[in-house]
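Hello again, I could really use a second opinion on something today. I've dropped the whole record in just underneath, so have a look.
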Amino acid sequence: MMGAIILLHRWLGIAFCLLFAMWFASGIVMHFVPFPSLTEAERVAGLAPLDGTPAAIAVADAVAASGVLDASRVRLIRRGDGPVYIVSGPSRLRAVRATDGADAAVTVSDVALAIARDHARRRGLDATRAAVVVHEDHDQWSVPNGFDRHRPLFRLALGDATGTEVYVSSSTGEVVLDTTRSERGWNLAGSVLHWIYPTVLRSNWLLWDRVVWTLSLLALVTAVLGAILGVTRIRLPYRGWHALHHVVGLATTMFVLTWIFSGWLSMDHGRLFSRGQLTEGEADAAGAVPDWTAAASINREPLPSLAREVEWFAFGNIYRRDRIAPDRQVLLGGGKGGDDRKTGFLGAGEVRAFVARFVTSCDAPDVIADNDDYSAQSIVPGAPVYRAKCGDVWFDVDGADGSVLQRLDASRRAYRWLYSALHRLDFPFLMAHPSLRDGLIVGLCGLGLAFSVTGIVIGWRRLRLSFAN
């Protein structure tokens, strides 16, 4: 039995030692440089003010013109080519012109270029040398599934000192992503390596999921076998690189095992644990298609002159959310009979009534603290996030826009600790001391890298010896 373990660990180790080293090294990089994205603050800052001008057609007419039968949200923005409604539902996303309801998809590169320049100017970026690079479905930075409803994307280089590139959705004409030269370079050494994220593989989500899940599982088996050998053969007189591999391996056993195990869990995607999302039945009940004609009563209130975006969303009744700045909004509640009111965010009573649409026997929602063990962040800084506890299942709802941020059952709460805490070290104490957390992550990943290098040397020598014979 022990001989089989030795042989299996030896050859799996040779096969995976480079992968282990890559994971530890890239883990350090991606801790400090996240994958490129357009933050909500950047998105809102790049929007043009609506100037208090109402749209020519009503919200209900825009929904009808869009053909999105399950529309749950409608946004009004002003692009360089005029005001546009963006109608979205679980199945589709479509833009229509606010003047006549005509299709507002972007098919011409010159329009995308004008949108990108306007967005950049409002964010204080230099776009005097902006140019369209390509119009395509996927590239290295736009492979995440969240961009699927916006494909194909226009990628445009601003030509500024930081090498900024922005991506414009052909569906809505919005800027949905930006990257800089520094972000791209560091992520090639960070997230792209760590997640095994080359475009050719990641553009096929199902294939990527199966490949990385399998590799992670085999890596976990390799680590477990190594731990067994390290403990059972602790007194053997190893020499040279074998001795170093043995000693460093014993010193890092717990970290390597928990980190590889939690890394494998990052690819769970509902296999063993729940996904933290509403069930199909809950989503259907929560997202029942509203009567969009009710938005007319709210729209008797003129649009603020400083509003950059107006959103109507279904939360039991229809609500209107006027975005004035990334951290400032006005919310108008669409009560029956036009009983509207102004406020900043949703209240606990409204959240409770909403949750009652798809689950019963819930406690009164409470605002969760920023340092909560299962924290969730609102899309608007400073906005409350409410937690409604319904027996063993908790629902966290954004007080800014009514989004259900996470569904926490016992399985998902366990996943939070087994994956997030073990892999990212986001324990509450360490999150309160970021410098200590940074040091631990760098130090432990550095030890893991050193351990992997000893495996690489041993593996290379074993291969040379095998080929020589």
Observations:
- Residues 40-184 form one domain.
